[in-house]
Amino acid sequence: MTTFVLVHGAWNGAHGFTKVRRLLRAAGHEVFTPSLTGLGERSHLSSPQVNLTTHVLDVCNQILCEDLHEIVLLGFSYGGFVVTGALEHIADRVSHLVFLDAFVPDNGESLMGLVNGVSRLPLTLGQPWQLPPTARVLERQDDTDWIRARSSAQPLQCFTEPVYLAKALEAFPFTRTYIKATRNPPDDVAEPVFAATGNRIKASAAWRYDEIATSHMVAINQPEALVRILTEIGGQ
Fold this sequence. Notes:
Layout: E1 3-7, H1 18-26, E2 30-32, H2 52-65, E3 71-76, H3 79-90, E4 94-100, H4 111-116, E5 130-131, H5 141-149, E6 154-155, H6 157-160, E7 175-181, H7 191-202, E8 208-212, H8 218-221, H9 223-235
């Protein structure tokens, strides 16, 4: 039995892991899928003060309160920033770190900086404090409709606050995996970052690298394929 903590991406909540959670639990694993503040079923808690640190603490507090150890910790998309920031507090509880078609930031990087080359946005009166969700097209129309109905705007500070990472990911004692979705549209704003990250990691002996032939919303499009990889990781 493996304990998994799965951290979702931007604009959605833990419901994005519903299919994966059911499959893993049916196989006898323990699964935690925290919903980050201001998103998913916690969208009513959104405010201009919510930032990356808020989400790091969401994840850390669940791991600490549940007293979880030897976990497989997964970050999807924006969740890559969250799990990276969480290492400062719970790295000794992680046995394997997984980035699912995700950002793998270095110390001091922000999502806005990686995607747009902008570390800070100019402050102006009346500036919006939320970023509307990206419209995703999934493999099945019913899944596309389902996820769009549950998407919500996200506080901008989640994307502009830099992450803190005390040392390189490869210097931690846990093992690590990058899973790349290979059918992302080339004009997707984050795909150049994901593709470059995947190519770098593929060439590294310090990482395991896997691919799933689908678009970005892997856990909804291809839950069985993702669970096969996670089960392999958990059994190592």
